[in-house]
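Input.
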Amino acid sequence: MRNEETAYHEAARLVKDAAESKLFGKPCYKVNGKAFCCFFQNAMVFKLSGDNHTKAMALDGAQLFDPSGKGRPMKEWVQIPFDYQELWGELSHSAAEYICSGK
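Output.
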């Protein structure tokens, strides 16, 4: 059985040229120096927009990423529970496409 962190690494590495880094002290992956996903509270967090953001937020247990825990969530970043690990690879690609699009 895969654990949360292993599933996170597997999903992020599906993105071409993804490089490990840190975001607010949390493990993340970047493409061209820009973060597209990170690992937080045994969940995977993705930078998304438009329909991808809306669909991700509709998942049970999904929430906006609040790395400080002080009620200041990051509007584009969606935290997706491990229950949806089968979607993590697809969401990694969507997030990487978004940050590479420059929009």
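The helical segments are 4-12, 50-57, 85-101.
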